[in-house]
Amino acid sequence: MNTQPGVIGEKIGFTQYFTPDGTVKRVCVVKAAPLVVVGKRTVEKDGYTALIYGFDDVKEKHVTKPEMGAFKKANVAPKRVVRELRCEAEFAAKFEIGATVKLDEVFTEGQFIDAQGVTRGRGFTGVMRRWNFAGGVQTHGTHEYRRHGGSIGTNMTPGRTLPNLKMGGQYGNETVSVLNLKIARVDAEKGLLLIEGGIPGSKSGIVTVRHAVKKRIKRGG
Predict the structure, then answer these.
(1) CATH 2.40.50.460 applies to domain 1-27+103-139+168-215
(2) What's the pLDDT score for residue 217?
(3) Domain regions of the chain by residue span
(4) Which of 36, 12, 35, 15 has the alpha carbon at shortest distance from 26?
(5) pLDDT tens-digit readout, 106-122
(6) Whether the Cβ atoms of residue 147 and residue 130 lie closer than 8 Å to each other
(7) What integer is the mean pLDDT of 50-58?
(8) Model-level pTM?
(9) Distances from the Cα of 74 to the Cαs of 193, 200, 203, in angstroms?
């Protein structure tokens, strides 16, 4: 279970960032403010430790009564997005319910992170777009089979179509994580994270950003 510190935010889009030495970097901008702690999980009560984040204020009529009751209990305004992220007890102890999380309390420039989002849905697609198939022969009288997948099985042995064969079907709209991305800049005042590289999902999509879990630390000597 991933217990690295992290936040949730909204993917704004891509832009360029110039470092002090003039180097240009392609960065993805994530807005993670205002981010409020609307609840906590503790080992004594729930068996694990986690922080429940609320993001983006919304009118009361757009939340259910049980949700509104939880927000009133925490004494915070209702939020459009609520996510629970597990963490270590030491990190959770830094924040009380109702507190606003500042990005410089979680991340630093040059740090490696893991980003998770939901990819853009592409509907029902064929094998060429979904699996990058080459397609059929385009000459010598080919008719109606230019974008087909070709043979899907054998004749006698085993005489059936094997499972997990790549075919056309639903493509996209799935949760994807990209590991070991680097933070180019942390703007705590505006609540922005500038991350080198791409993050899954479309603009205005909700993404999760955590400390990297698989980054190898180079040791001297």
Answers:
(1) no
(2) 65
(3) 1-27+103-139+168-215, 34-101
(4) 15
(5) 999 999 999 999 999 99
(6) no
(7) 93
(8) 0.86
(9) 27, 32, 30
